[in-house]
Automatic annotation (TrEMBL):
GO terms for molecular function: phosphatase activity. Keywords: Signal. InterPro entries: His_PPase_superfam (IPR029033), Histidine_acid_phosphatase (IPR050645). This is Acid phosphatase. PANTHER family: ACID PHOSPHATASE, PUTATIVE (AFU_ORTHOLOGUE AFUA_3G14570)-RELATED, ACID PHOSPHATASE-RELATED. Residues 1-23 form the signal peptide.
Length: 511
């Protein structure tokens, strides 16, 4: 509780969060038109509660059945249905075509979660009853002289093995995988994701050319290698001519990576841990207490120590543990000794309902989700805003390493990235962003004015914030006033937001 007291005041500097700001902006193309400067752009920078649904209703979570029609056991779910293994994304069959042909697409920025993977080692049971093999794929690592090219290198990949002379047992499954790594199925899903985006933005809209052109298209990854594993397949899906060709992936230094995000934002970390996973907040503990009998069953069956705090401060570990199996057509686990005592489908569904509830709580239902997400993801949002400005002819882009003509930027990220972004956009119905979860920002011009459309899972996003509302051709002044009001141009507000002066002052430390 110490944190919740001091952290609330940490965000005192964010008093503008509950205010309405007036935008002075007014973006024109080459032919300024008076109608594109709104006479009164007022933007609401405060948090607004998401829609109430089964997902954030505890009695449905605890006493309900099923999992809202969501899919957890195949990458080939119906289009437009939540599929944890392979979330809906932009594709020619469901793309909401802009009917008014006077809107011209000017710039596209895509961000999505990586595709399906083996579980993180920390989420595997102490003893697994089966092994997991990844010998149907290679994880390539290597180096090669470029700028200028020198001698060629071999394309080297990892062959994971355990040694009979090494007496230690690895964390996680036996077998030939890293935990985590993108699986063969996840690589195939990544490839298809690229094929689908290309079919829309090149085949259908002619916005990007058929052939790869690094002056027009760029890709960015995080410091976690699984995003590069996805990008390598996705790019070849978009541009088959890229297969086995050298292709740059933009990446920021680990310590300041805004995409993952990996930069330090102490105030946001403390705020998250004051109300969410790991906190002692009663509003957080309620669902954990209500799920006591489920926990007892899962702990007894899996051998997880009921005292293991990382398994019991949230359902994250059990969720990953069970869903990763199902996405790869592996059975739900059974007791190692009493092999007829297995996790049932109903129990797995309850774990999934609890996980969805937790993400909704952490990123939308708690009003603290908003300042915590703004602090920890504000830099990426400022970069996006700068790329939008650049596309309108106003200043440099956020990436001066690439051509100034980039019109399609593609970011491969994580659930923590997508969740924070959805929190900032105030998605009306929050869910846990499954594998491949995608948000697309499309900038349009019309009669010299600019507008933004945002797609979530390939469909137009709805925000609970009244200034954003249905994110369909929102005047760019409104969007930029919202982003700038929260994070500042060039993320100028973020260093201040992220500081935790109280920790230094009250001598309690911030650990
Ligand atoms: C602008 O809009 C806000 C909110 O709708 C309203 O309160 C305010 O009076 C308006 N200002 C002007 C100058 O019209
Ligand atoms: C679930 O149902 C039980 C039995 O009816 C009830 O005691 C409990 O309060 C319910 N839990 C929630 C969170 O509604
Ligand atoms: C996935 O789960 C659903 C619901 O239990 C079931 O009907 C379906 O057959 C399963 N599909 C696969 C591929 O296992
Ligand atoms: C375009 O028009 C079709 C047919 O009226 C409609 O179904 C679709 O939703 C429209 N697209 C958008 C983006 O509004
Ligand atoms: C699930 O957790 C159990 C218990 O820690 C572990 O043995 C197992 O490897 C995990 N499996 C997955 C798929 O995460
Ligand atoms: C995993 O490997 C360890 C050490 O080699 C062995 O003791 C254990 O039985 C293996 N487990 C499975 C499920 O193969
Ligand atoms: C290629 O390798 C050979 C042998 O080490 C070396 O002599 C040569 O300079 C290298 N070429 C380049 C372009 O670096
Ligand atoms: C790539 O795009 C740039 C910018 O539009 C253009 O100047 C160049 O000719 C293109 N390159 C190719 C190979 O088409
Ligand atoms: C859990 O911790 C309590 C108190 O430290 C201890 O008495 C108990 O034996 C522990 N239980 C397990 C399963 O380790
Ligand atoms: C094994 O598990 C089954 C199903 O949970 C249970 O009915 C049975 O009593 C258990 N057997 C032993 C020996 O614990
Ligand atoms: C969250 O809501 C509570 C009460 O509803 C209020 O006291 C608190 O100031 C709000 N916090 C933020 C960060 O908006
Ligand atoms: C890119 O930006 C950095 C930091 O502002 C600057 O040092 C560098 O010279 C710039 N590079 C180019 C090519 O503009």
């Amino acid at each position: 509780m110490r944190y919740s007291q001091s952290t609330l005041s940490l965000f005192a500097g964010l008093s503008s969060f509950s205010t309405i700001v007036n935008s002075q902006g007014g973006y024109y193309g080459s032919a300024p038109s008076a109608s594109c400067k709104p006479s009164n752009t007022t933007v609401d920078l405060s948090w607004h509660a998401p829609v109430k649904s089964g997902i954030n209703d505890l009695s449905t979570v605890i006493n309900g059945t099923g999992i809202y029609g969501f899919v957890f056991n195949t990458s080939q779910g119906p289009l437009s249905t939540y599929d944890w293994c392979n979330m809906p994304h932009t594709n020619v069959h469901t793309y909401p075509k802009v009917n008014d042909s006077s809107y011209k697409l000017e710039y596209v920025e895509v961000i999505h979660r990586h595709h399906k993977r083996t579980p993180y080692a920390a989420n595997t049971f102490p003893v697994e009853s089966y092994s997991w093999d990844c010998s149907d794929e290679g994880l390539f690592f290597g180096g090669k002289p470029i700028n200028p090219y020198g001698n060629d290198s071999a394309s080297t990949y990892w062959e994971v093995y355990t040694s009979p002379s090494n007496p230690l047992v690895p964390e996680g499954f036996n077998g030939t995988c890293q935990f985590p790594q993108i699986t063969r199925g996840g690589l195939d899903d990544s490839h298809q994701h690229g094929v689908d985006l290309k079919a829309v933005y090149s085949g259908m809209l002619g916005f990007i050319p058929e052939q790869y052109n690094r002056s027009l298209v760029s890709y960015r990854v995080t410091n976690n290698v699984i995003t590069s594993q996805v990008a390598s397949m996705l790019i070849a899906g978009m541009y088959p001519g890229r297969a086995n060709r050298d292709t740059p992936l933009l990446i920021q230094p680990d310590s300041i990576d805004s995409l993952e995000p990996a930069y330090t934002c102490s105030s946001a970390s403390h705020l998250f841990s004051s109300y969410g996973s790991g906190s002692s907040a009663p509003s957080w503990h309620q669902h954990l207490n209500d799920a006591a009998s489920l926990y007892a069953k899962l702990d007894a069956l899996s051998g997880v120590n009921p005292n293991a705090s990382d398994w019991h401060m949230s359902f994250d570990h059990y969720f990953d543990n069970l869903s990763a199996r199902l996405c790869h057509a592996k059975p739900l686990p059974c007791d190692i000794v009493n092999t007829t005592n297995c996790v049932t489908e109903a129990e797995a569904n309850e774990v999934f309902r609890l996980g969805e509830y937790e993400y909704s709580f952490i990123y939308r239902d708690s009003n603290q989700s908003f300042p915590a997400s703004v602090g920890s993801y504000g830099i990426w949002v400022a970069e996006l805003a700068q790329n939008i400005r650049h596309a309108m002819g106003d200043g440099q882009s956020s990436v001066n390493a690439t051509s100034p003509q980039i019109r399609y930027r593609h970011n491969v990220a994580h659930d923590g990235s997508i969740s924070r972004l959805l929190a900032i956009l105030q998605l009306d119905r929050m869910v846990w962003p499954g594998m491949g979860s995608e948000v697309v920002f499309e900038l349009y011009s019309k009669s010299g004015c600019y507008f933004l459309r945002v797609l979530w899972g390939g469909q137009i996003m709805n925000s609970s914030n009244p200034s954003l509302g249905r994110l369909d051709m929102v005047p760019i002044d409104t969007i930029l006033a919202y982003f700038d009001g929260l994070v500042g141009v060039g993320a100028s507000k973020i260093p201040g937001i992220c500081q935790t002066p109280e920790c230094a002052v009250d001598g309690e430390g911030c650990a």
